[in-house]
Amino acid sequence: MNCPSCGSNKMKTLPVIYGSGNTDRSSISFSKRSVRTGSGRRQTKLAASASPPRGPSLILSLLGMLIVFLLAKWAIGKVAPLAVPSLHGQAMEVWLRFNSLLPIAVAGLIFIFGLLLYSAKRKKHAVRMNEWQNTWMCLQCGGMWK
Ligand SMILES: [Zn+2]
User: Fold this and answer.
1) What confidence tens digit (pLDDT) does each residue in 36-77 have?
2) Residues, CB-to-ion distance under 5 Å, ligand 1
3) Which are the contacts of 92, defined by CB distance < 8 A and separation ≥ 6?
4) I need a surface site. Which of 35, 61, 69, 136 has the fewest CB within 10 A?
5) Assessment of whether the complete model's pTM goes beyond 0.70
């Protein structure tokens, strides 16, 4: 494959560039004050620019759901005392019977909604990942082509 922009044949796919630019290493460095040991990944600038799209994090999604739930609970706590005195008869009975279930119902709804959102993000990520794998980069001019 030749670069459509500059005609160079130094084309590589992003996974290849990314893979060749990352090296795992262990290091021990001595300085006057301390001895540092560490292992880390060294990444070239080129590899960084060819890094794969980041996927959604399940933990962050769960954390997001928790925050939404706490906000919802807080909002219910604020609104309920204002709304409840205006309830009459049947509505009041329903409220008294079900208000303890409300947080569970809200948690359930948020959880289902959050999981749907997460799976949608995962699907999007799979598409982007597929595109990443099939993207060529010209090492001559830096252009990217699919
Ligand atoms: Zn080029």
Assistant:
1) 555 566 778 888 889 999 999 999 999 999 999 999 999 988
2) 3, 5-6, 8, 138, 140-141, 143
3) 84
4) 35
5) no
